[in-house]
TrEMBL record:
Species name: Nicotiana tabacum (Common tobacco)
Keyword Repeat carried by entry: yes
UniProt keywords, alphabetically: Repeat
Statement: the UniProt record of this protein carries the keyword Transmembrane helix: no
Domain of life: Eukaryota
Transmembrane segments: none
Gene name in the database record: LOC107793801
Family membership noted in the UniProt record: Belongs to the PPR family. PCMP-H subfamily.
GO MF term (any one): RNA binding
Protein name: Pentatricopeptide repeat-containing protein At4g01030, mitochondrial
Biological process, per Gene Ontology: RNA modification
Amino acid sequence: MEAATPLYHFISSHQPLTQKQPRRYSTNFGLINVAETLPETSPSTSPSPLSSLQFDYEKEFHSLNSVRAMHAKMIKLSSVWDSKRNMQSFISAYLEFGDFQSAAVLFFVGFAENYLYWNSFLEEFSYFGGNPCEILEVFSGLHSKGVNFNAEILAFVLKICSKLRDKWLGLEIHACLIKKGFNLDVYTQCALMNFYGRCCGTESANKVFKDTSIRDSLLWNEAILVNLRNEKWAEGLQMFHEMQTLHVKANSLTISKVLQACGKLGALDEGKQIHGYVIRYALESNIMIRTALSNMYVKNDNLKLARVVFDSTDNRNLPCWNSIISGYIALGYLDDAWELFNEMITSNIKPDIITWNCLLSGHFLHGSYPEVLAILRRMQSAGYHPNRNSITSVLQAVTELGYLNSGKEIHCHVIRNGLDYDLHVATSLVDMYVKNDDLTSAQAVFDCMTNRNICAWNSLISGYSCKGHFEKAGNLLNQMKEEGIKPDIVTYNSMVSGYSTSSCIKEALGMIRRIKSCGMSPNVISWTSLISGCSQQGYFREAFEFLIQMQDEGIKVNSVTISSLLQACAGLSLLHIGKEIHCLCIRNDFIDDVYVSTALIDMYSKCGNLENAQKVFQRLEDKTIASWNSMITGFAIYGLSTEAISVFDRMRGANIQPDAITFIALLSSCKHYGLLDKGWKYFDHMKTDFGVTPTIEHYSCMVDLLGRAGYLDEALDFIQSMPMEPNAAVWGALLTSCRIHGNVELGEIAAEYLFKLEPYNAANYALMMNLYALSNRWKDVDRIRDKMEAMGVKIGPVWSWVQVNQRIHIFSTAGKTHQEGEIYFELYKLISEMKKLGYAPDTKCVCQNIPEVEKEKVLLAHTEKLAITYGLIRTTSPAPIRVINNTRICSDCHTVAKYMSLLRRREIFLKDGVRFHHFKDGKCSCCDFW
């Protein structure tokens, strides 16, 4: 054969692997038939003829030089050199001493033409640390020197090219096959398809298959496997169907892979047909096929048939057990999976790392995060060392649990076992530290990564942006580009989310424009991040404006968008819009989403429709802790403490562990109804019985509870005994209670702290002025007012609004009330009727030093009275009147609202700055305790 074009490109592109230390005993190369042995030689002081020599490596070959010297002597004696046994001995010796190129040259010269020798040679070559690249290097060198190779040798070299993804050498070999006009046999055709499938794609491999005139079963099987290896599941399944129409028999490997395709595609019917094929051809005894069958049924969510296949399998091996266990875990049957695991142990089948990783990842995916850590400990006790997959699952569980210390312990294990250089493990560590608010450690792990993928960049950028460190996030974004990694939509979305949750709405919107300028399209996550941030930060109107822009761009909302919009509805108490969104949820099948349902409960509760909130809650099947908390909070803000406590008891009966938010809701319900004993009970037991450490919010609730109940001295003692520094919410609760009970002395103490903590909060000054006014200390009222003027603190306008016929009507102290004459006429009429029933204006609510007659006029101008009156004038239906007020309702307005509900037989819902009041038949849901 003529020498082909020199293949120089390979020689310079591959480096040899690290060599193993040579074994000091004879190798077992295994190429020569066992019966072919060398005769023993008798010891002699003089050199024995090489033709009769059996090499003893311990005596003859002490170094690479000794091998080369003996080799040179053998070549000189050409009559005995070409002996297969002698060549085998030298190949083994060269391999032992790390001269892989010499070993490969000898193999090409003496053994390459025999199919039977290749696998043994490659196995031995790899054992001693040889890099298969060196075989190709030798081949290229020999080929360039004019050594002739037949089609069989080229086919085997082509297989090595496939394994090493050496595209160009493989193409040159194919060209050589065509140029020399070799009549390609089925093995060579298979090698070509395998090469093109791995290095050029399935289209090229399929073209080789279509162009060949040979349609042997080996070719059909190889063609199907090439497609399936490249995840062309549908194409592989179609080829298998065509193969059966031609009555070509599939081998066991092809059948198992096609069953895998049925699992990937959810093709249960096709899988059943292949099961029938297996039965017809009596292939059921093949354990690989049985495992594939079981796995196919599992992937199609048919555990019943998977179990039938498993139970009817004799001599189940470990992959068979792993398949069925993973099936039960994937579908959430964790207890059944453990039963199978224990049965496997009793069957003397020892689990492997795959079994343990399956248990770890399965428990994580189904939210059993504490169990993941327990499985890790059990796995280590059994003598298994976690690998990269184990560590990744455990780190994800630690992230969800917020166990930073446990995460650090796992990090230490990673370093000790050399797993910190694994890309996936390092990325999981970065993510764990970011989500546990330890950005310093996240940055340290990130800096130590040699090969950073885009996930690591995105995780750290997200961490900085969500914490408001936009300069650092921007620097990382620029550094990322400098290192040749192109930011993707996830990168920019994390910046959008960070800006929006930090109230930087303009910057978030600018980032969306930047996404467009980079040639990408903002997706539903981009817009939802913006809408969600607005809803969280109180920019409710902006949230709806961005929704309109999102819809204009043709992007459909998802469940997270819906949840954010419902949060905005709750913030603005827009019940009618909330109901429209509820209808949208039903039409688009969002109603079964637990997050959407929880948001609906919250929206209805905060929009004054507790009845609908209860209906949504009762229909929710898989209630999460957030769902229970929302319902408890809903009852709490209405002052329905009995109902709130009842929901808590039901939650405990459902084995749902309460969290910190649960106890905030419970304590709030107690303070709104004056249940001091129950409040103390929950506060004392939250840590001892439920492991929840009280936070500043819980302490604030207790101060409010004690203060509202009249235990002001006890409330002050409680504050002074707190394990943390009291914040403005704690002192604000005490000052509010002092105003309720008229305790100026303690009120001044609370106000002193508040003026230091929040020097520009006008509400604190207003509370203190009200307290002084109740005690007729008008000079102190003027002193506080002068202090406010000196600091530039102004009390914002008080407003109330009522919705009539889908339109919001606002009544504010800042401007003139619309239709004022008509409203006051009706209000005077109502007040006259109330006085006949015993109503007396509570002028103590007016904090001005004016005559009593003037105070009564001031009371009439309170915005909540005007809003309720307007609602009575403009609506005649039995529908409730819903009023929203931005400050705490005064006692006079509270009394007037009760009389209005009695006189006009109308339900009135009034949401003030603290809670909801439901007025009906002259009574309020708060029982006059607010």
